[in-house]
From TrEMBL:
<feature type="transmembrane region" description="Helical">
    <location>
        <begin position="289"/>
        <end position="316"/>
    </location>
</feature>
<dbReference type="Pfam" id="PF02932">
    <property type="entry name" value="Neur_chan_memb"/>
</dbReference>
<dbReference type="InterPro" id="IPR006202">
    <property type="entry name" value="Neur_chan_lig-bd"/>
</dbReference>
<dbReference type="InterPro" id="IPR038050">
    <property type="entry name" value="Neuro_actylchol_rec"/>
</dbReference>
<dbReference type="InterPro" id="IPR036719">
    <property type="entry name" value="Neuro-gated_channel_TM_sf"/>
</dbReference>
<feature type="signal peptide">
    <location>
        <begin position="1"/>
        <end position="15"/>
    </location>
</feature>
<keyword id="KW-1133">Transmembrane helix</keyword>
<keyword id="KW-0732">Signal</keyword>
<dbReference type="InterPro" id="IPR006029">
    <property type="entry name" value="Neurotrans-gated_channel_TM"/>
</dbReference>
<dbReference type="Pfam" id="PF02931">
    <property type="entry name" value="Neur_chan_LBD"/>
</dbReference>
<dbReference type="InterPro" id="IPR006201">
    <property type="entry name" value="Neur_channel"/>
</dbReference>
<protein>
    <submittedName>
        <fullName>Neuronal acetylcholine receptor subunit alpha-10-like</fullName>
    </submittedName>
</protein>
<dbReference type="GO" id="GO:0016020">
    <property type="term" value="C:membrane"/>
</dbReference>
<keyword id="KW-0472">Membrane</keyword>
<dbReference type="GO" id="GO:0004888">
    <property type="term" value="F:transmembrane signaling receptor activity"/>
</dbReference>
<keyword id="KW-0406">Ion transport</keyword>
<dbReference type="InterPro" id="IPR018000">
    <property type="entry name" value="Neurotransmitter_ion_chnl_CS"/>
</dbReference>
Amino acid sequence: MLMVILLVAMGVNVGGYITGSYGVNVDGYITGSYGVNVGGYITGSYGVNVDGYITGSYGNEQEQVLNSNIWLRFKWKDCNLVWNVSEYNGIESIVLPEDMIWIPDICLYDNSEYVLKGIKEYYRARVFHDGTVKYNFPSVLKSVCQIDIKHFPFDQQVCNLTFGSWAYTDNEVMVMNNKTDGDKTSYVKSSEWQLAELSINSYQRLYSCCKYTFSEVVFTIRLSRKPAIQLLNLIYPCMIISGITLIGFFLPPESGEKVSVSVTVLLSLAVFQLVITENLPPNSDSLPYLGFFFIANMVFVGLCCSMSVIVMNIFYSGERSKRLPSWIRFLFLECLAKLLCYPVNNKMVYTISQDNIAYTAELTPSTENTCKELSLRCSKDFWSGNHVTERRYSSSHLKLINQLRHHIRDREETRNLCKEYENIAFIINRIFTVFAIVIYIILSSVFNLIVYT
């Protein structure tokens, strides 16, 4: 029987490897006493060694699957495929198609597709004279893997490839692997993922469906994401755009662009948020820290926008507001101004009346005179009467001059009041600037600390 098997296999299926008197029809081999579908009348336990060489692997976050390019290596011994080398011209091995010998029904338990590509088509097995069968083939596997994106883009994903027999128990087919570390020599480096670890473990499990145990080999793949692409395309631009918000505090309120800068930055962050959402699973058990970082940045930009509105509101409130209480002027124009190194212009206008003579004097530490026509520069000799020009007018002229004097006084008071509000607005703007810089530094530091640890 064995001679018929070998002659048929060598004469036809090797494709010219063996010629001459060994050629026999293939049908005679298939219909022989060797049982292909039952493993040659299984009389004992087959030990199937399952090994694999990972050549490429990457995770798909949106589909929650692991795509792997793997070279599978199956090895077992078939006692019905043994011959004496000396009797067959020293032939030690032959190559046979998979449908002419028994091949174990090894399947991928974690498979997300309906077939394990490569087992049933195109590839052949090598049979050795001692009954050893090696069935090697490359395959593209798409397996289920729960992707944890909490630390995206500094995450590590652990996925399993579980191989085992679907029909045979461990008493009939023992699926095993004697190694604990997988071979990574053929792995092709990826621009996004790095193969950090490849381990192999053999198990015997009892499932609820059956009363017998099944053997399986589990390849554990640990992938580390390379964050360079995400850092350059998402995180660093986000931090730079958020930092642009701080520039808005240095714009003068008269420009009218303080709020526009914050709104533009807020829209930019919303666009980045959409880009991240497209690359992550729609339903995830864990939310990425990067998402919280973007939300925190959007809250930060919104807070900066609110601060800019407050500053501009105070800046333009002088003409329609009352004079500030003395304690507010002391707190802002004296204490906080010195603390924040903000120079305050203390120019004030005083009006003096004596009999029917009207004098308008301006006390200022500067050399400017805002009312040159009806004002006098005041010096130490002003109060003693020196350097004061005195003019007497008729009652009608004096009335007109008094009206003009009151008008100028009201205008100067309004101007001084506006100046006070402007100074307070600038001081508050500096306070907000310091506060925003501190919040920005804390926000960036906390994100880096959480992600990198």
